[in-house]
C-alpha cells in the first residue's frame, strides 16, 4: 500500500467532516470486466517466483461494484506454464447467485467444466439487489489459487445503514491477509499426498507484502490514516491454508460486517479470521500521531517454521517508519477482547427457520492416508459436472456415486447440518451461492435461532457447529472446507437443492455447453 497515493486520494476528495470518502465504482446497471489469467513473475516477499495471476498481479485487480449491478466478467485463459494447472475456473466467493444462474457459479465438476489455455469464458453475475459487503474471487480448480489467482471484490451500498459510523471506505481500506508459497501448488499437493502434511507457507502476506526467514527486509505494507477520522477497514482472508490473529496496537476494532452481513457495532481488540472469511471493522484514528503495528500472527503449519514470519504492517500518519515499539502478538490473556462469532447480531434480523431435514457431517482423516472424509466418504469430483447430469434428467440419489457426497433435498426446505470436527482442525466450511444461519458456533454452547449471524464461511472445532440453510435455489451447491489442501483431498460435499426444478429454471448458454466438450478434448497436461 502506497502511503503517498492514499494521502493523495484523501486530498483529492477534499474530505470534509461528515462526508464519507468512498471508492468510485463504474456507473450503470452493467459493468464489463476483463481478467487475463497469465503466468508471470511475482515477488511479494522479495523472492521472485512464477505465479498464476489475474492480469499479472498478486492479488489480481481489485474489483468494485455497486449493489444490484450486473457483472459481466470475461476471463481469458492465457496460461502457458505446465508446471502449474493450465486450466482454470473462477468462483466469486460469497456472492449470492440468482436461482437461474447457478451455471455461472464457477465450481469445477459441480457447476461447470474448467476451461483450458487459449479459451475464454464470460461469467455474467447479476448481483443480488440486497447484497453488499466484502467478497473475493479465486480459482476454484484444485489448489491453483495458492499460486496467486485471488483478488478482492467489494460490493458497495450507497445507502449503507451504518455509513454514519465511518468517514473513509475506499481502496486504501481494503486489507488482505494471505499465505504464500515459493513452490508451485502442484508440487505442494504432491508433497501433501505423500506426507499427510500441508506444505508450510513460506510466509504470510499483509496487503501482498511479507518477509520470509532469511529473505530480504521487504518494506511492510503501511496503512495511512489521518488523525480524528474513522476508517472502515475490510479485512479479507484470501488464505489457502493459514489463519491469522489480527490486532492493531493501541486501537480497538469495531466489527460491523461478517461475510457480507452487517452487524450491530461490536468492539474487540483481536480477531481470528479464517480462510475465506471477511470482516469490516471501524478503527478510529484517535491515538497520538505515531506508527502502530498491525499484528497478524499466522497460524497453521509448523509453528517453529513460522516463528518470525508474522506479518507486520503499520498504521500511521506519521512520517513513514517502522514503529519504535516492540513487535508483539497482540493482546492476550486478560487484555484480550476477542471476537466471538456468536456475539455478532445482524442489523437486518432474520430468524433461523425450523429444519425440515437434519444432516450430520463427521469430518475425519484416517491415519496414514492423505484423505479427508465426511461420514467416511472422501469427495471425488465426477468427470461430468453434477449440473450437466441434473440437466440431463439424472436427479435420483442413485444417479450419484457415493464419492460425490451429494445430498438431495426438495426445493424450498430448511436443512440443518451439524458438523463434528473431533480433531479440532478448524475447517472453514463454505457454502456456495447463499448464506447459512450459524445456529451454534464452535466455542459456545448457545443455540441461537432468533437472529444468529448469517455468513458463508464458518470455522469448525471440537465444540461442534450447527448451521441451517434453505434449498430455495435449485441446483448443486458446493459445500466444502476452504482450506484448499483439505478440499483437494476430499473435504467437500454437494447440496442438491430441488433437482426436479433445475430443468425448468436453469437455462445455460451455448458457451457454457461447450465447456465440457472442450475440456474433455484437452490433453491431460493442459487440464
Ligand atoms: C485486465 O487487463 C486487461 C488487458 O490489459 C484490461 O483490459 C482490463 O481492464 C484489466 N482488468 C482490470 C479489472 O483491471
Ligand atoms: C514455469 O514455472 C516454474 C515454476 O514456478 C518455473 O520454475 C519456470 O521457470 C517457469 N517457466 C517459464 C518458461 O517461465
Ligand atoms: C519444489 O517442487 C519441486 C517439484 O516438485 C521439488 O522437486 C522441490 O523439492 C520443491 N522445493 C521445495 C523447497 O520444497
Ligand atoms: C486466514 O485463514 C486461515 C485458514 O483458516 C487462517 O489460518 C489464518 O489465521 C486466517 N487469517 C487471519 C488474518 O485470520
Ligand atoms: C501504546 O500503548 C502503550 C501502553 O499503554 C504505551 O506504552 C505506548 O506508548 C502506546 N504507543 C504509542 C505509539 O503511543
Ligand atoms: C432435527 O434436529 C432437531 C434437534 O437439533 C430436532 O428438534 C428436529 O426435530 C429434527 N428435525 C428433523 C426433521 O429430523
Ligand atoms: C467410519 O470410520 C470410523 C473411523 O475409522 C469408524 O469407527 C466407523 O465405524 C466408520 N463408520 C462407518 C459407518 O463405516
Ligand atoms: C465410485 O465410488 C466408489 C466407492 O464406492 C469408488 O471406488 C469409485 O472410484 C467411484 N467412482 C468414481 C468415478 O468416482
Ligand atoms: C419454491 O419457491 C419459489 C418462490 O416462492 C416458487 O416459485 C417455487 O414454485 C417453489 N417451488 C416448489 C417446488 O415449491
Ligand atoms: C472450538 O471450540 C472449542 C471449545 O468448545 C475450543 O477448545 C477449540 O479450540 C475451538 N476450535 C477452533 C478451531 O477454534
Ligand atoms: Cu479443512
TrEMBL record:
Please state every residue range assigned to the domain named Plastocyanin-like: 39-159, 172-308, 379-492
Q: Which UniProt keywords apply?
A: Copper, Disulfide bond, Glycoprotein, Metal-binding, Oxidoreductase, Signal
Pfam families hit by this protein: Cu-oxidase, Cu-oxidase_2, Cu-oxidase_3
Give a yes or no for keyword Glycoprotein in this entry. Answer: yes
Signal sequence coordinates: 1-18
Highest taxon of the lineage: Eukaryota
Q: Name one GO molecular function term.
A: oxidoreductase activity
Q: Which family does it belong to?
A: Belongs to the multicopper oxidase family.
Q: Do you know which PANTHER family this protein is assigned to?
A: LACCASE (PTHR11709:SF511), MULTI-COPPER OXIDASE (PTHR11709)
Q: What is this protein called?
A: Laccase 8
Source organism (scientific name):
Mycena venus
